[in-house]
Amino acid sequence: MTISLKVNGKSQVVDVDPSTPLLYVLRNDVGLHGPRFGCGLGQCGACTVHIDGRPTFSCILPIAAVGDREVTTLEGLLEDGKPNKLQQAFIDEEAAQCGYCISGMVMRAQALLRTKPNPTDDEIRNYMRPNLCRCGTHTAIMRAIRRAAIA
Amino acid sequence: MRLHRVILAVLAAGVLVAVGGLAWAWRPAIAPISANQTISDRKTIDRGAELAAIGNCSDCHTKDVGLPYAGSRALPTPFGTIYASNLTRDPGTGIGTWSDEAFRRAMHGGVDREGRQLYPAFPYDHFTKATDEDIHALYSFLMSLPAIHNVIPANQLSFPFSFRPIIAGWKVLFFSQASLENDTSKSAEWNRGRYLVEGLGHCGSCHTPRNVLGAEKKGSRYAGGVAEGWNAPPLDASLATAHHWTVDQLAEYLSTGWHKLHGAAAGPMADVARNLAQASKGDVHAIATYVASLSPQPDGKTAAITDNAGRSSPADVVAIYTGACAKCHNDRNDVGPSKALSLSLSTAVQQKESANTVRVILHGIQSYRTGGGPYMPAFDGILTDAQIADITQYVRARYTDQPRWADIKTEVAKARQEAQP
To answer: What is the span of the domain harbouring residue A51?
Structure first.
């Protein structure tokens, strides 16, 4: 079935089964590898993208349900092809061990900073709860978010 | 209909004021005690902790998990918002100056240490059945907790409900201070269960419907009620369910928040289960014994799995169900890490009201984060409100033979207005 969607500001047309998760379409058909497959059950957050600016698990979002809502992936945050302020803060704070969760972490943190440019530590912790990091780099992730908030 | 209810409520409130005026007798204050006294009887304190778990006290009396029993949680009622009190022994804002006697009077009679009437959002209509010994254990437990200074916000109630003395009138109409007599025709376990369910457990507070003045309807005990927007299903034989609940199934559900033939505890019930996990196995089994006796049916009654997959449904709704739901709720009932089960077994999907199914889809089930219970992601933001309504109706039609739900869209909108769980 032919489905059109808007990803990172560009229109895309894909030919997939309508029940296919958005994550699979982004990785396999659109060629964007920012969002990761972690659990596939909406439990870990590695697949987090923005749907109309809201952080969303793309692994449990069927392509048929996306409609004309705007999809943004990690790649969509780049500014002039370079990491944006938050992405650079993650790099500067070396906020990754294996790095598998980081795309999702950046996407969720970006959504937080958009609605709350200067969050408290409690607000950061609470907002970031749905995303898991198995390596335990949470303190570095906190530093990165704080760094981007202050910068 | 709405106006009719409002007029009825106003008239009834007028009656309360009149009756309250006649009946209201001033209650004396009970002398304050020194806030520094300590209770060191560990056994009694531990027993009190178990009873507090059975009473689910922490659920209403804790707003912030970091400040247990310090109160301030807002409780929405049809009459306005009531803020739960501080149960820690802080002398200024908690119950630090309350003697054992003052605490017992509050539990049995709904009057605070200073002699003020307490709103029945505090379910003393049930706690009045607790024994002096159990209330002493509960008191000892609360007094063993660290004092937390926490000023409770003033209640926001509409007049005349903001005028405390009318509670005396409410009590004349709906409250009787009485303990339970043992029913010698029943087992000791059944009697123990009844004592806990009718008393500290206060199950009827949610599972019994209430009248316009917020009192439990005596003629409809356990016929199902409402809790913070969620539907508290009937505990009597009117409960719609694929499998009849057996005593053992209820006991497992109550202490783990999940049963493979019924589904997960969600909403306010998730907190009840999280607390009951701290209670003794014997007490939980007794509770299950009594609750199961409210809907007597042969234990063997099981229904075949309902799956009306053949019913015609819009292709996009089927695609969304397949991509968003079926990975966990698969029909092989292959229970994965989410403890999802075939929706034909879900008690929520069988109910007369769509309230719980809508709220579970919207908010998910997050109890695994605190107690290793079941998990479901919140579909708020993943699916649009219209898609959530479509999926709710699809699940109902496919996995039950019950009639369609009306007004799901209104229910989704209503659920959104409520505070997040």
So the answer is: 2-76
* pLDDT more than 70, % of chain B: 90
Give the predicted TM-score (pTM) of the model.
Answer: 0.89
Interface confidence (ipTM) of the complex: 0.89
A41 and B377: CB-CB below 8 Å? Answer: yes
Q: How many domains does chain A have?
A: 2
Is residue B395 a contact partner of residue B414, using CB atoms and an 8 Å limit? no
Q: Nearest residue on chain B to A55, judged by CA atoms?
A: B381
End position of a domain, from candidates A76, A97, A122: A76
What's the one-letter identity of residue B25? Answer: A
Helices B188-198, B281-293: axis angle to 10 degrees equals 90
Interface test mutation site (partner A, options B382, B385, B387, max chain A beta carbons within 10 A): B382
A108 and A67 belong to one structural domain:
no
Average pLDDT over residues A27-41: 96
* Mean pLDDT value of segment B221-245: 92
- A15: which residues sit within 8 A by CB, 6+ positions away? A1, A2, A3, A29
Residues belonging to chain A: 151
Residue ending a domain, among A58, A76, A94, is A76
> Distance, in angstroms, between B70 CA and closest chain A CA?
19
Across the interface, do A56 and B336 touch by the CB < 8 Å criterion? no
Ordered structural domains, chain B, with CATH = 2-174 (no CATH), 315-417 (1.10.760.10)
Decide if B384 and A65 are in contact by the 8 Å CB cutoff: yes
B335 inside 8 A of chain A by CB: no
